[in-house]
Write a structure and sequence with these properties.
Strand order of the largest sheet: 5-6-7-4-8
Helix content: 55-70%
Mean pLDDT: 85
Low-confidence stretches: none
Oligomer: single chain
Strand content: 5-15%
Shape: globular
Number of helices: 21
Number of strands: 8
Largest sheet: 5 strands, parallel
Structural class: alpha/beta
Radius of gyration: 24 Å
Length: about 450
């Protein structure tokens, strides 16, 4: 099976939702011809593979309804996917070719945008790629959805494919491992999965938190881990949480996850988000003004997939409507995405209150004239958080902080950014403040 029953049900829900939104009889007729024939064929960590009747219908469908379908998927699946469409008579061969290599060639070290939130994870991944089995074994990478864990794992694999092509590299999700094991048990062929996992030089397991779904998979991976580790084969693991926060995983596995190096990836800061948008726009040949990138970077701080999704939506809107991308168009085209994330507008006053509460001072001291370190530091932190979490200009931030000049705001933000790079504990403290504001 190329997908789970749950994934099939979600895809069916996407189609049903689209049909329910088509009231016009002519639209319903077109729906029957171009959208209803779409079938889910396979699911990978990055994409949904969809089959259709023929190339002509698929091309027409994508040009007219592609953006609508792309936007509907995360509403049902809970996350964004790339959508790959192929005719029914081609898709089996395409997916079979895809499975010959477990790596996605588009993810490399060269196109990974490095910033304060991921530079340690990047350096560790590169070190492992250069000396697999000798440096940081296992390497455990954790962080939220869409922050770059899968990119780094593929980058390691692609680096090794180029530099050491003789190595046997396998990347798979824990969910795929579980599905293969269940299928193997049913067909009494578990030895095939065992051989596949244990006869590799580099094993990379993505979304390891899902190993908890079956005891049998944990048992299999435990013995696989021991064999590969004893033979000095490289093991790389990715998860949404650090080992200690995976209580559903057996203790003997969690302890082994910590034998090597554990690194985390945080949400990208404003500068990194801007760099990601510039890189993606150049890669996709999307002509996007600087102020539109600023608008996206200020308002989308959840993960990289959402940033890229905004660019894709803008490009599709511009092509379909034959319109130029500008700030007004971006506000309209991205209202669903950014509005859904933003909720009620976040104000400087709300941020000042939260920072003051964290440091045990009153908001008026932050906006006041005192310059003692006990007040200046929280003031600069609040300025930095305002720049990271709102679309306010430095001039507007300065006005909210007692009429201060925009250069004062820039200086304060730069000081906090530098302090976060130099002091990990301080970085965590600022991130904790941001997390509290996001939850509120």
């Amino acid at each position: 099976m190329n997908y789970t029953p749950e994934e099939k049900a979600k895809w069916d829900k996407v189609i049903q939702t689209l049909e329910e939104n088509m009231d016009d009889p002519a639209q319903r007729m077109l729906f029957k011809t171009f959208i209803r024939p779409l079938k889910l064929y396979a699911v990978t960590p990055e994409a949904l593979y969809i089959s259709g009747d023929n190339s002509f219908n698929l091309n027409h469908m994508k040009s007219r309804w592609g953006t609508m379908i792309y936007s509907a998927v995360p509403l049902v699946f809970g996350r964004s996917y790339e959508l790959e469409y192929y005719p029914e008579n081609q898709i089996a061969q395409i997916v079979a070719q895809l499975r010959k290599s477990t790596l996605n060639s588009k993810y490399t070290f060269e196109n990974f945008i490095v910033g304060p939130s991921n530079q340690f994870a990047f350096a560790a991944s590169l070190a492992v790629a250069e000396n697999p089995g000798d440096t940081y074994n296992p390497l455990f990478i954790y962080g939220g959805v869409g922050l770059g864990k899968t990119h780094l794992m593929n980058a390691i694999g692609n680096f090794l494919s180029g530099e050491k092509p003789g190595l046997n590299v396998l990347l798979m999700t824990s969910e795929a491992m579980t599905n293969e094991l269940i299928e193997g048990i049913a067909k009494k062929k578990t030895s095939e999965l065992r051989s596949k996992l244990r006869n590799v030089d580099v094993l990379m397991v993505d979304d390891v938190q899902f190993l908890s779904r079956t005891k049998a998979t944990q048992e299999e991976f435990f013995h696989t881990f021991n064999k590969l580790y004893d033979e000095k084969k490289q093991i790389i693991i990715a998860s949404d949480r650090p080992p200690k926060e995976l209580p559903e995983i057996e203790e003997r596995l969690r302890s082994r996850f910590e034998w090597g190096l554990t690194v985390d990836i945080q949400k990208p800061d404003f500068e990194t988000r801007m760099s990601i948008l510039k890189e993606k726009a150049a890669e996709e040949n999307i002509d996007i003004p600087y102020d539109v990138m600023e608008y996206i970077a200020h308002n989308v701080n959840s993960n990289i997939r959402e940033l890229e999704g905004c660019l894709t939506s803008l490009d599709a809107h511009a092509r379909l409507m034959n319109a130029k991308i500008d700030l007004d168009m971006a506000r309209t085209a991205l209202s669903g995405r950014i509005g859904a994330q933003a909720g009620q507008p976040l104000t400087a006053e709300t941020i000042i209150e939260a920072v003051a509460r964290h440091y045990g001072i009153v908001p008026g001291e932050i906006t006041g004239k005192k310059r003692s370190r006990e007040i200046a530091l929280p003031r600069q932190v609040a300025m930095y958080v305002c720049r990271e979490m709102t679309g306010m200009s430095t001039t507007s931030i300065g006005q909210a902080f007692g009429g201060r000049d925009h250069t004062t705001v820039m200086h304060g933000c730069d000081k906090i950014a530098e302090a976060m790079k130099a002091d990990f504990a301080f970085k965590k403290r600022v991130e904790e403040i941001i997390s509290i504001i996001e939850r509120e």
